[in-house]
Amino acid sequence: MSETKTEQAEYEIDLLQLGKALWHRIVLILLAGVLTASIGYLYTRFYVTPLYQSTATFYVNNKSISVGSGSLSLSTGDLNVSKSLVSSYIVILRSRTTLNEVIEKTGVPYSYAQLRKMISAASVDDTEIFQIKVTGPDAEETERIANCIALVLPETVASIIDGTSVRTVDYAVAPTNPSSPSYTRNVAIAFLIGVALAAAVVVIRFLTDDTIRTEDYLTENYKSIPLLAVVPDLLGGRTKGYGSHYGYGYGYGYGSQTDGDKSRKG
């Protein structure tokens, strides 16, 4: 039981010393965070391409469906059926036939695969309304693509699935501000990375430093061995007492040199 208490006490003392080590280097740690935050801002400003996002909104009309020779009557309040229809329309939207037609009508310099990556779609709050979002480096181009989809998609859906229709609720408007990147988020992440790296360096140096800096360390950890003497600091008395500040001092000193020491040194 006594050994367990001793180990716990030693662990608490280590944490206290580690906290002091971090606190004594807090200025350097914060400066490292500011430096990496500045780098993050400059990188975002000059090397990250701003992306714009245009949104168009559609309504799914699902009163009845007939696919092939089968037919099915649906209630407009059936939420599960609405989700299924929205999912089907999104698949049709992202199909090669639909997007190739959009590319042909808009004249954008993208392949089917490139345009497909630029388009996302999802239902709004699990309703019969869904939105498509077109993200790209040109605001007017994203608006043109989204509005072209608003014209092409209803016709494509009507030609594939009988008895249903897609109606445009809102056409896209060219965005005035980019949707990404976020300067605030990138700078905050860069700052935290800098602080973490600087703190890690301090912790590693602390854990690998086996220098005995205080008389108390010897008396508390080696109680069976008597302390015979303490070597005073003869190199200028850089510490007050026995190395009270982490990382400073070259021995156990009582302060500055006495007049006697200075005269003997001269």
Summarize the structure.
This protein is 53% helix and 14% strand.
Quickly list its features.
disordered C terminus; 14% strand; 3 domains; 266 residues; 6 strands; two-stranded antiparallel sheet; Alpha-Beta Plaits; alpha+beta; single chain; elongated
Description:
This protein has 266 residues and is of the alpha+beta class. The chain has three domains: 1-48 and 181-210, no CATH class; 50-170, EIF_2_alpha (Alpha-Beta Plaits); 215-266, no CATH class. Helix content is 53%, strand content 14%. It contains nine helices and six strands. The strands form two sheets. A four-stranded antiparallel sheet has the order 4-5-1-6. The chain has a two-stranded antiparallel sheet with strand order 2-3. Mean pLDDT is 78; it is low at 1-13, 64-77 and 239-266.
List the helices and strands and how they pair.
Elements: H1 2-24, H2 26-47, E1 52-61, E2 64-67, E3 70-73, H3 79-93, H4 96-106, H5 112-118, E4 119-123, E5 129-136, H6 139-160, E6 165-170, H7 183-208, H8 215-221, H9 259-265
Antiparallel strand pairs: 1-5, 1-6, 2-3, 4-5
Q: What is the CATH superfamily classification of the largest domain?
A: EIF_2_alpha
**What structural class is derived from the secondary structure elements?**
alpha+beta
Distance linking N and C termini: 56 Å
Quickly name the level 1 CATH class of the largest domain: Alpha Beta
CATH topology of the largest domain, by name, is Alpha-Beta Plaits
So, CATH architecture of the largest domain?
A: 2-Layer Sandwich
For the secondary structure, the number of strands is 6
Number of helices, where a helix is a run of at least 4 consecutive DSSP H or I residues: 9
| Shape estimate | elongated
Give the total of domains.
3
Largest sheet: 4 strands, antiparallel
Instruction: Kindly report the average pLDDT value.
Output: 78
**Parts with pLDDT < 50 across at least 5 consecutive residues:** 1-13, 64-77, 239-266
Task: Please report which band the strand proportion falls in: under 5%, 5-15%, 15-25%, 25-35%, 35-45% or over 45%.
Answer: 5-15%
Task: Please compute the radius of gyration using only Cα atoms.
Answer: 35 Å
